Amino acid sequence: MKLYTKPGACSTADHIALEWTGQPFEYEILDKDSMKAPAYLAINPTGAVPAVVDGDFVLTQNAAIMGYIADSYPEAGLAGDGSARQRGEAARWLAFVNSDLHPAFKPLFGPAAFIEDQAQFDAVKATARKRVRSLFEAADKQLAGKQWLAGFRSFADPYLYITLRWADGLGIDLGGLANLATFRQRMEADPGVQKALKDEGLA
Q1: 203 vs 82, 165, 169, CA distance in Å?
Q2: Coil, helix or strand at residue 27
Q3: Does residue 113 have a pLDDT over 80?
Q4: Which helix (H) or strand (E) is 46 found in, with range?
Q5: In 3D, which of 82, 84, 71, 89 has the Cα closest to residue 17?
Q6: Distance between CA atoms of 47 and 176, rounded to whole angstroms?
Q7: Which of 48, 108, 155, 200 could form a disulfide with 78 if both were Cys (CB 3.0 to 4.6 A apart)?
Q8: 154 in Cβ contact with 78 (< 8 Å)
């Protein structure tokens, strides 16, 4: 299995998940130019990361890739213990990060995609910051009394961790969210997380 990733993007979460499987894999680090080069566009025509190539099978979209990693290496427990209930719980929190939290950052990364009037960019960003903060508050509440989002370590956790790094880089106030702070410390002490970050030049 080979992962195509861009350092610090959501694909870094897949890199962490692959480290957590304990199984061998390859990775190729891309930048904004190589993501749009013909060689990569032949793999993913959208020019986005992540993408996974496993033999003759090509898969894109982060949530789908996380599920594929979990199903390919079930012994890693990234979707739970094999029960429908635990897989559903892990998928619920993966969906929360993928469908709610990740998109909430988009106006901060590129407000022009949401409004043409540059004079309104700051207002759009301010609204987005409030939205991101409220979603992190929901994650913090979920983590109360738990080490992991789903109640067990799952593919949702690396994705949440990457969004915390984005929040830090954007200066989003996460003050008072003690459960999230503890979660981030736990992630950063994890050997698999440390290796993925080092491999992508983020350590």
Answers
A1: 33, 12, 14
A2: strand
A3: no
A4: none
A5: 71
A6: 38
A7: 155
A8: yes
